[in-house]
Specification:
Blueprint (H helix, E strand, L loop, with lengths): L6 H14 L12 H8 L3 E3 L5 E3 L1 H4 L3 H17 L12 H8 L3 H11 L5 E3 L2 E3 L5 H11 L2
Antiparallel strand pairs: 1-2, 3-4
Helix pairs in contact: 2-4, 2-7, 4-5, 4-7, 5-6
Amino acid sequence: MEEEINPEEKIIEEVEEDVLDEIFVDKNIPMNKQLLVDILKPFITIDNEGVINFTEDYDKLKDNQKVLIYLASKKAKVAKEILEKDEEAAGPKEISENAGIGLSSAKVTVSQGFKKFLTKVAGGYIIPNYNLRKIKEIILKNGN
C-alpha cells in the first residue's frame, strides 16, 4: 500500500527548500555592469587601451579599498574585452604596483582583510560577481 503524503507536509517541505536558497550563491551569476560602474565611476576612468586613471577621490581611499577598486577595474576590462577572462586575477605584487599601495598592504588585504569577499584563482585573486554588491557597500561605508 502506498503511503499518502499529507499536503501540508509537502507545502512545508517546499517552503523549507525556498528558505535555504537564501544562503546559497550562484557562482555563475552574470556580472551586473551597472553595479560595477557604480563602484568604479567615482574613483577611476579607463582608456581604450586599458590604462587606469585614478581620480582625486581614489587618493582619499584606504589602501584596502584601493585593492578592491583595482580588482573591480580588472573585472571591467574583462567585460569590455580589453583583457581575457584568464587575465582578470591579480596577485599582491601586481596590485601594489598598479594601485599605488605598498606590497604589504596588498598582501594583508587579499590574505586577511577582505579574503572572504575574494576568490583565489590561478594568477591571484578576483572579486566574484556575487560579491560586487558587498564590495560596493564596503567602499561606500568606508570611503569618501
